[in-house]
Predict the structure.
Amino acid sequence: MIKSAINGYISSAIIYKRPFYGYGKMNGYERLNDILVNLFRDILYLEEEAMKRSGYKDLSMNDWHIIDAIGDAEPKTMSEIASELSITVGSLSISMNGLYKKGFVERKRGEKDRRRVYISLTEKGDQAFKAHRKFHRDMIEAVREDQSDSEYKALVSSLTKLADFFRSFGQVKKDDPSAGDKAGEEEEKTAE
């Protein structure tokens, strides 16, 4: 059932109707780059299509990620949400106004400090949050379905290393922009 739901998203996706050129002529660097770029794009596209099919046609992927960052736990401040998403409070404010007008979030002033505004999901927002989480659960179960335990562990290990690399690279760039450029140059030399 789960796999058929994911396959339903895939079969309707325009991205999967593009020609497949295969990896025969690509070197390892080109192949990995192609996989990463297309996988990222494909997952976002499938996620967006799945959420539209769930009845949420008026939400962008940006909105979905904000709803997910707010979550169903304790209310959060704008700064906490912006920090979790690695965006500015100003950028978040624009999207938050839209979510508020659409009825997905509510704002409440702090009782101790009236200057602080706390954001939480409305009932409508909570339903959207649960639909989004369900998509992610279904996606993971579909990926896991045809893998042995050792394949699954190897996939998780490889993706964890990749995620750690990207997180550390982002940190290097934040701390010292020139160090990030040097790290990129080293990677290019190694790839050749």
Summary: DSSP finds eight helices and three strands in the chain. The chain has two domains: 2-146, 153-192. The chain has a mean pLDDT of 79.
